[in-house]
Amino acid sequence: MNPEHLSRLFTLLQQSPSGDEREMYRQWSALMLIMILLIVIALTGLAFLVTRRRARRRRDALPKRKNAPIVDAWAEAGRRLDDSFVEFNDDEPRGKNR
Questions:
Q1: DSSP the chain
Q2: How far apart are CA 31 and CA 70, in angstroms?
Q3: pTM to 2 decimal places
Q4: What percent of the chain has pLDDT over 90?
Q5: Where exactly are the structural domains of the chain?
Q6: Of 31, 29, 50, 51, which Cα lies nearest the Cα of 39?
């Protein structure tokens, strides 16, 4: 999974006798790790922005709905009410079948 130059870097890091060379390779590998992480973060952010833009374009391409006039909530509920509801009256004795 490691690219060739990274595996070569680890080999050089282990074989280098000088502490200065090891420090240079360590700093270089840390810099590469940071650069890779920044690139991944930037690509993720870019993909997020592109996805949002595409979704907005699709939403704007849909036909616009007409705004319905505002209706009184109780009048609308009465219009939608059907005859399947039974109204109970407290004056009638219970247990009587209609």
A1: ---HHHHHHHHHHHH--SHHHHHHHHHHHHHHHHHHHHHHHHHHHHHHHHHHHHHHHHHHHSPPPPPPPP--HHHHHHHH--TT-----TTSPTT---
A2: 62
A3: 0.47
A4: 29
A5: 4-60
A6: 31
Query: Which residues are CB-neighbours of 12 under 8 A, at least 6 positions away?
Result: 21, 25
Among candidate residues 63, 72, 5, the one with its CA nearest the CA of residue 36? 5
Q: At residue 28, what is the residue type?
A: W
Give the length of the chain: 98
Map tokens 């595996």 to a residue. Answer: 7
50-80 tens-digit pLDDT: 999 999 999 888 887 777 777 788 877 777 7
Q: Which residue has the tokens 């079948």?
A: 97
Integer Cα distance of 79 and 37 in angstroms: 60
Token look-up 């060739």 returns 4
